[in-house]
Design goal:
Blueprint (H helix, E strand, L loop, with lengths): L4 H11 L3 H6 L7 E5 L6 H7 L6 E3 L2 E7 L9 H4 L3 E3 L6 H5 L7 E4 L6 H10 L4 E5 L3 H14 L4 E4 L3 H7 L4 E7 L12 H29 E11 L8 H10 L3 E4 L8 E2 L16 E3 L9 E8 L14 E2 L4 H10 L7 E5 L2 E4 L12 E3 L3 E6 L2 E4 L2 H4 L9 E4 L4 H7 L11 E7 L2 E9 L2 E4 L10
Parallel strand pairs: 5-6, 5-8, 6-7, 8-9, 20-21
Antiparallel strand pairs: 1-3, 1-4, 2-3, 7-17, 9-13, 10-13, 11-12, 12-13, 14-15, 15-16, 16-18, 18-19, 21-22, 22-23
Length: 455
């Protein structure tokens, strides 16, 4: 790869004696990662089930592994069952280092395509609330698919600017994850388009975006809340320098030191104006020190007092309040019919008891999508069987991983399977995949067309 001359001069000045080792990293292979979904499967269960050979642990992410070149885990039925997510190993670091606790309200501010949101959602364990946002509605659709495939029930998906969110969520969030737009220097090894973007936009443009995003995140944090700021660039101006400038504006904030493992290095305060020692508590991932691409991670805590002024959305309906929905839920599932819901244009979503008011925001998903009431019937969503274990469904058909009907189902083809009348959930090795409907001796495959396995 032909690197820009200005970039090479800059990196050589920063790394000095490590510069040649950094250049040699461009000859290293590309690293691939797989991260299991602990909402659906434990590490111990995965070790018994894992269909792939050659997996090696990612030191900084307990749920992550490297997988060897040549594997195609996105083509395996377990991927469609939401048992794992495919993610570049270094990109697992922000989600691994943000200290999520059950019950937290968490914002993933620049969330698409969903790697960090799925990681945070698994940590929440279906408690609290996850708001996943991306300014691009197109990218937010891919984000939605990944969150739904992971079976995360406690999520809201928006496509907004950070400024708009800050007007709605003042003092609301316990944790905020910011994978900030950046100059992408850490991605040069794997993506030549990142080089072109660097030459077009430059560091200064990215710094201006990052400054705004950090300010808005500060507004949305609770007292003692934490934000995890990360980039995929080496630029000190966008990393330690950006944190330094933010701390100067907000003396009620401080860096919480993180400990690097597996080749992760500490931050470089000597590359800033003040050379503040606390910046060494940040982390840098360098491709010549570990198996992965470039990343920066810094955990910041807000200690100043903030009043939560976020308006809550009152619970107006529950499953039991809509007769057609109640009948379906009681006939085919063991869900609690006292569960709060939102009804929007005949579409039904699960609602948190403490859900925020989203009026005025561009919302992709107001909660977990249950299905749609139309023509005096309820059509269940693809999302519903992905969000619960097989024990939640009264009619469940389990297929062996070797059964040809598994792939047939995932491709939307007709199945040769015996099924009780009505709606049944099809699963593989105990993990739900989606719906089929048995009627008049025929079995209709209801696997969502945009979810289907491509040959």
């Amino acid at each position: 790869m032909e690197l820009p001359v200005k970039f090479k001069e800059k990196i050589q000045g920063l790394l000095q004696e490590e510069y040649e080792a950094y250049l040699e990293s461009y000859d290293f292979p590309e690293y691939h990662g797989i991260r299991i979904n602990t909402l659906k499967i434990s590490k111990e269960e995965w070790e018994q089930l894992v269909p792939f050979e050659g997996l090696m642990p990612v030191d900084w992410c307990a749920e992550g592994s490297y997988y060897p070149e040549g594997l195609r885990p996105a083509k395996h039925p377990y991927y469609h069952a939401g048992l794992y997510y495919l993610q570049e190993p270094s990109a697992m670091a922000p989600g691994a280092y943000i200290p999520i606790e059950e019950g937290d309200k968490v914002l993933d501010l620049c969330a698409a395509p969903g790697g960090k949101s799925t990681q945070v959602g698994a940590k929440l364990g279906q408690t609290g609330l996850l708001v996943s946002n991306d300014i691009s509605a197109t990218r937010a659709m891919a984000l939605m698919k990944n969150i739904e495939n992971f079976g995360i029930r406690n999520s809201i998906i928006t496509a907004e600017t950070s400024e708009r969110l800050a007007t709605k969520f003042k003092g609301y969030f316990d944790k905020i994850l910011i994978d900030a737009p950046c100059s992408g220097e850490g991605m040069f090894r794997k993506n030549e388009n990142a080089v072109k973007s660097w030459e077009t936009h430059g560091v200064a443009h990215c710094c201006s975006l990052q400054e705004v995003i950090l300010e808005d995140a500060y507004t949305m944090l609770k007292t003692n809340g934490m934000m995890l700021y990360s980039t995929c660039t080496f630029s000190p101006e966008e990393n330690e320098g950006m944190v330094e400038a933010f701390l100067a504006k907000h003396p009620d904030c401080k860096v919480l030191p993180l400990q690097g493992v597996g080749g992760i290095r500490q931050g470089r305060p000597e590359w800033t104006n003040t050379q503040g020692a606390t910046l060494s508590g940040a982390l840098r991932l360098w491709p010549h020190h570990l198996k992965g691409e470039g990343h920066f991670v810094c955990l910041i805590q807000k200690t100043g007092h903030t009043v939560d002024t976020t308006k809550r959305l009152a619970v107006k309906k529950r499953i039991k309040d809509i007769a057609i929905l109640k009948e379906f839920i009681e006939t085919y599932t063991y869900l609690d019919t006292d569960t709060p819901i939102i009804e929007l244009k005949n579409k039904i979503y699960l609602q948190s008891e403490d859900a925020p008011d989203l009026e005025g925001l561009r919302v992709i998903r107001s909660g977990m999508y249950l299905g749609e009431v139309k023509n005096k019937r309820f059509d269940p969503s693809q999302v519903l069987p992905m969000a619960y274990s097989k024990e939640m469904f009264k009619q469940y058909i389990d297929l062996d991983i070797r059964d040809v009907n598994v792939v047939k189902y995932l491709k939307g083809e007709t199945l040769l399977v015996e099924a009780p009348k009505g709606f049944n959930v099809i699963g593989v090795m105990g993990y739900p995949l989606g719906w089929v409907k048995s009627q008049n001796g025929t079995l209709k495959n209801l696997y969502a067309p945009n979810w289907r396995m491509m040959s």
